[in-house]
Design brief:
Blueprint lengths: L3 E3 L13 E3 L14 E3 L11 E3 L23 E4 L5 E4 L5
Parallel strand pairs: 2-3, 3-4
Antiparallel strand pairs: 1-2, 5-6
C-alpha cells in the first residue's frame, strides 16, 4: 500500500491511538506514541503530539494558503531550523 493509512492500526498492525499517516512509509519509524500526524514523513520512535509534513532533503518548497495577507493581533515571527522545526521569535528581535 503506497497511499494512506489512518487511526487505530497502521499497515504493520501496530496499535496506535489517534494517529494519522498519509503517504509512502509515513509513520513507519514511529513505534509508540499518540496524537501524531505524519504526511510523507517516517516519524521518530516514541513521539507524541507531533505533526510532521514532508522529509528534509526531499521536499524543497512549501506552499500554505491563507497565510499571506492575513492580519493577526500581537503576532510573532516564525523561524525554521535547519531540521525543518518551526518556532517563533518576537518581531522586535529580528
Amino acid at each position: 500500500m503506497r497511499s494512506a493509512t489512518q487511526a487505530y492500526k497502521d499497515r504493520r498492525g501496530r496499535n496506535r491511538t489517534r494517529d494519522i499517516a498519509l503517504g509512502y512509509w509515513a509513520r513507519a519509524d514511529l513505534t509508540s506514541g499518540v496524537n501524531n500526524i505524519a504526511i510523507g514523513n517516517r516519524g521518530f520512535a516514541g513521539e507524541s503530539n507531533h505533526i510532521r509534513i514532508g522529509t528534509v532533503g526531499v521536499q524543497r518548497h512549501t506552499f500554505l494558503a491563507g497565510i499571506s495577507g492575513a492580519t493577526v493581533a500581537d503576532g510573532v515571527g516564525v523561524v525554521v531550523g535547519t531540521d525543518g522545526h518551526l518556532g517563533t521569535v518576537f518581531l522586535r528581535t529580528l
